[in-house]
Specification:
By secondary structure, the chain is of the alpha/beta class. 44% of the residues lie in helices and 19% in strands. The chain has a single domain (4-161), classed as Alpha-Beta Complex (Maf protein), CATH 3.90.950.20. Strands 2-1-3-4-5 form a 5-stranded mixed β-sheet, with helices on both faces.
Length: 163
């Protein structure tokens, strides 16, 4: 298994080769993805920005998530994750986006969205946004760490296979 920095290095290569700029919109990960991406020298060549939209209001105001999606599906949902990624594309100079929303715990879970439920979405130029639901185990830090790792691993995999 690759280390986080190896994954970021490979992501950087793909993004630079395609002349793409990446934006992140994070909720439950609190900016951890953007922090990891910018820990690599030269990331300004391919990383556009990172938004931490922890509240529902910030999801709407900063990422452009329609309020009715949050009201109907909840902030932790496929629809909201997709809207977060699409909003990053439409509101920034980014050409690719990654978003994460979930319940890291230890509280906040429900019967339908227990602690560890995370939705991650990705969007690339010319393609519709796609999202997946994950269920991670462990404490708050473990859920957040797993979310970051899977988000980046899947970003790399998707960029390498579908685009």
């Amino acid at each position: 298994m690759r280390s986080e920095l190896e994954t970021v290095s490979q992501l950087a290569t793909v993004l630079v080769d395609r002349d793409w700029r990446l934006a992140t919109v994070e909720s439950c990960t609190g900016g951890s993805i953007a922090q990891l991406l910018t820990s690599v020298a030269g990331s300004s060549e391919w990383f556009e920005c990172g938004l931490v939209t922890y509240s529902n209001r910030s999801k709407t105001e900063l990422a452009g998530v329609p309020e009715h999606l949050i009201d109907q599906y909840g902030a932790v949902s496929e629809k909201v994750a997709c809207a977060m990624a699409s909003g990053a594309i439409s509101r920034t100079a980014a050409t690719a986006a990654l978003s994460v929303t979930g319940v890291a715990g230890p509280s906040g879970g429900s019967a339908t969205k227990p602690v560890g439920t995370v939705y991650i979405a990705w969007q690339f130029p010319g393609l519709p946004v796609r999202a997946e639901r994950f269920h991670f185990h462990g404490d708050r830090d473990a859920v957040r760490r797993q979310s970051v790792n899977i988000a980046l691993e899947e970003l790399l995999r998707l960029m390498s296979t579908t685009v």
